[in-house]
Amino acid sequence: MRLHLVIYSIIISTATGVSAFVQWQCGDYVSCKSASSSSSSTMALHARTPVGPMARLKKLQDPKEYNRVVEEKMKRSKMTREEAEADYNQFLENPPFYYALEKKEEYYKSMGYKDIFEGMIGEAEKQGKGDEMRERIAKFRLESKIKAATVLIIAIVGFFWVQTIYNADPEHFLKGGLPDYSRRG
């Protein structure tokens, strides 16, 4: 019974962390970054983040390219070297989609919104499209819940299916190794 609870909690924590939603409204990354770089506490936080394995690997494999990207980021975004390196390292460590999501979240928080959804609604309200954005977000949340529930149901059904196979013949369940052909005679 404990195994059921452990697997169930792992599946739930994995499925609930999957949903994400990005809508770039500020055009390109540079303009979003310049708008959000006014928050010094956010940049100080990024400057203290540890360097992960992907960023270290990139820096060791191609230091010229790494430095070129960092210097270009410093010029475009008016950042210090530490801030630009922290930002590029974060990009290398996170898949681009999640990196963009984090940057968009920072952008809206720097504008005073609670989270990305509230920021998207607030900015859409300024353009007179608040109701349309609320509908899009509600649709997205509903689709995300349906997808998460589907994944959970498939995982749970699969787990119980494997358990019934095990209960039917526990001694021969998933015997590892290669077949023994030496007995053929």
**What's the story with the biggest beta sheet?**
none
Report the β-strand fraction as a percent range: under 5%
What structural class do helix, strand and pairing data support?
mainly alpha
The portion of residues assigned to helices is: over 70%
The low-pLDDT segments are 12-47
Overall shape: flat
- The overall pLDDT average reads 75
Number of contiguous helices: 9
C-alpha Rg (nearest Å): 24 Å
Distance between the termini: 45 Å
Return the string of H and E elements. HHHHHHHHH
Number of strands: 0
Features:
72% helix; single chain; 185 residues; 9 helices; mainly alpha
Structural account:
This protein is mostly helical and 185 residues long. The chain has nine helices and no strands. The longest helix has 39 residues, at 130-168. The two termini are 45 Å apart.
Topology:
Layout: H1 2-16, H2 29-36, H3 40-47, H4 53-61, H5 63-77, H6 81-93, H7 96-110, H8 116-126, H9 130-168
